């Protein structure tokens, strides 16, 4: 992400070696740290600071003290243990203290001559021989008089063979160069002068803030630096978020300047499709369909978000959009996050579109070469009207004859790069785009993140649905739950049993599911169990799900892969083990797998002891409400924004200093601030924006 201030400053993009004399070896190592330009240096943040601005008197030391000391070597001692390689005693004017080194070069031993002045920075420790200074950083002085640093000393993250000193010097040089550059230019935007005074650090210039971070004065609140609450950081964060916000909206404005082909659908075709479903659309579905179909008649690309809680019936809405495209003679690409889901969607769409004589193809990873060639040919010739697949849909070699609409299901599960590829598939016209998401985004966040992106919300559950009864059960009472499972199966209904383990590897998750699978089989031999986990091949997963759907099994034991889009209306009991380990929204998504038919549905949240009151309280939010938005709000306060927006993956947003997870609260202020700026509202022609989009803009979806 650029900073407004820095976009025009050419220096930031210049290679380090153009301004500093560095041996090629060091340059290589810097490159390995992703440090190539002066800008990279400036945005390389310290991980902590050392205070070398004063000399601590040796008479006052205590164990655990980390500080700087200075004295004259009195004598060399015999090392007290085998680990200690060098030991000497040094003294200032009032006290003496032993210094211990654990590994030393011979050259250093040679310099430790009695009478020499040394300055050491390190930690005071204590063993049975008393206090000593443990393996400090040491500097040999020519006299007692050497000056101390004026600023706190930054310590940078691991440097792979580049010394802290070299790094520090390079960064300071970069600050000086960039500072000089800014002093000789006085474009008002470059100064970024009008930061609202509610932002700490609003009165700091861009370079000034950097200077502060890399060379803070001795009295700096280091804690605030580390948590990024310090004004110097806040000021940069604010600027970066403004740039982020600006670019998102500019890209959208930009996209609207491209033409799209208008799509039309006849009332007769709509009715044919509606009759196919066998139920009436909810009011919310009807409204969403109308909005979407209206957008599609325009000669500019639609860019709409369809937000609806899990089970709210987004797929049917998407089918109407697809219908408009195929009725106009254009193609539709429908992208799903997993193969399992792609297969399910393919099944549904094939069924629906058969009535219109349209071909729906599925593009899968594991297809035979022959089958794949055939499908690709159908897409290239236009014979296939709808293509469904994972991101494989947008790989090289997949060509559409005339793509009119792109639908992305569960859009939050895709990386931004994947989403961007979609756009590149188009030729002279941009396809219309419909993004679907089941992660309800709290309003505060949605307004800023999605900005002016129009949004349809399905906030109504299909009418016949009964509420899902949710209960919290401690895991000791698992046997009771198994009894309930048995009686459930006896009535011919089906059950999901989800083993929620997070953080661990897929391997461990699969293992946990396997163990549960075996245990349940033993405890309920009369039920038929199937197992589903992420270590199975797509083919296996698909066939397990199909069999479950065909009622060949009563219980599906799974890792959280079932979270995504599985639709089995006969499944009415969901058991989530270790529910306390999942985010609330994730639990809610899982729960939405049941209650899709007309029977009463239940969800059991099994939690492990010890489970804190807070955790239990959180889970009880799920018990109290089925409103995905409320649940998401709760999650937001607990977990922060990044998880919810799905932008946490590294590299996706490439922020230099801001962190949506931590700083999202600033977003509304950014938006307000941008409205009042001379270069807003969103000038897509802005030269720097154009340049920036070309280089880095690829990270963002328009
Ligand atoms: P999601 O929004 O989670 O993608 P789906 O589109 O998969 O939800 O729909 C969930 C289930 O609800 C499906 O079984 C679907 O057939 C059913 N459904 C959707 N809309 C309606 C409706 N208006 N009336 C009854 N059932 C519906
Ligand atoms: Mg869905």
* Spatial strand arrangement across the major sheet: 10-11-9-12-13-8-14
Whole-number average pLDDT?
83
Spans of 5+ residues with little confidence (pLDDT < 50)?
A: 641-653, 680-702
Strand content: 15-25%
What small molecules accompany the polymer chains?
Answer: adenosine-5'-diphosphate, magnesium ion
What is the β-strand count? 20
Shape: globular
In percent, how helical is the residue content?
25-40%
Kindly name the structural category.
alpha/beta
Number of helices: 25
- Report how far the terminal alpha carbons are from each other: 15 Å
Largest sheet, if any?
A: 7 strands, parallel
Rg on CA atoms, Å: 31 Å
What does this structure look like?
The protein has 702 residues and is of the alpha/beta class. It has 25 helices and 20 strands. The strands form four sheets. Strands 10-11-9-12-13-8-14 form a seven-stranded parallel β-sheet, sandwiched between helices. A six-stranded parallel β-sheet has the order 15-20-19-16-18-17, with helices on both faces. A five-stranded mixed beta barrel has the order 2-3-4-6-5. Strand 19 (571-577), helix 19 (584-591) and strand 20 (601-607) form a beta-alpha-beta unit. Helix 4 (164-183) packs antiparallel against helix 6 (206-214). The protein is globular, with a radius of gyration of 31 Å. Mean pLDDT is 83; it is low at 641-653 and 680-702. Residues 279, 281-282, 285, 308, 310-316, 438, 462, 565, 567, 569, 596 line the site of adenosine-5'-diphosphate.
